[in-house]
Design a protein that fits this description.
By secondary structure, this protein is of the alpha+beta class. The protein is elongated. Helices cover about 55% and strands about 15% of the residues.
Length: about 350
Amino acid sequence: MAIYHLSVKTISRSAGRSATAAAAYRSGTKIHCQREDKTFDYTHKGGVENREIFTPEYVPEWATDREKLWNTVELTETRKNSTVAREFEVALPAELDPYQRSQLVRGFVKEIITRHQCVVDVAIHAPSREGDDRNYHAHILMSTRRIDHTGFTEKTRELDEKKSGEVLYWREQWANHCNYALERAGYRERIDHRSLDAQGIDREPTIHLGVSATALERRNHSSHLGDENRETVARNQARLDRPLSLDHEIIATEKLLAELESEHKTAIVEATAQQELDDHAKAMAFLEDGADDLMARWDAELEQEQRAQQSEKVEKVREAERKKEQTQKREREQNHDRGEGRLGFVRNSAKCSITD
């Protein structure tokens, strides 16, 4: 079942951390930090499903080289307590395959870049062998400064201020991106970025364990956070076992009705779409039949026109032959008349000679 998780973290020198070390660990690569003159080698680290750097358009070439990028970030910040990087850690729906997970993160990151014009280094991690096999997650490591063709510029202060609402905006956007990916993949599961209370769910949220507590739990050692989560799970189970209060029954009934209404609307939409497809198929079949009739009529009309044209040509030839015969006949008659005239003249001339 898909779960919602997006946490925002900062990589700060005041906590003894560096952007070069964070980038090397998350990407499972080797980076030499120029500022500390120290090499961070995590090439032996497994479980990195995908790693990729995203930038705005028209940035220096070094921005796409992981080692050069994060060294430049470190050298750009001069204060000893500087925040050198920011991270969104997100849980990926286990229902999705590797390509779908990658496309989900890409779409989300491209929106971050468009909005904040920063550089983003993404590492998608598969579940560890000792942990939950559904724990696909992504580390979205971001520069704290915008970047253009000249290099890093001003800070992205809006992500530091709670009043700006940027973090809440991105929490909601991540839920929207995940739900769209689940829908496209054909799953009915959805996630919600809101608190359980805001969703009307009578359940206490558990606490994110973090790296240290998770490591202890994996070695079968209890941790303070792990104990708190186990107590929370027990209380939630007790809620399920006891009879629902009237208010909770109303909330549960309203939620069930909303789900049934949503399913009903979905069924209507699907039925309407199927009816439209059937009507379209019938219309196409009708048009195809009509087209056959129309083509047959056109062929008959064309054949009739060709016959008419042929008859007209034959008639013209016959008319020409009749005119030719008439002309020849007149010529013969004229020649005959001229011959008779000459013969009469000769006869008259002969009579005159005899008389004389």
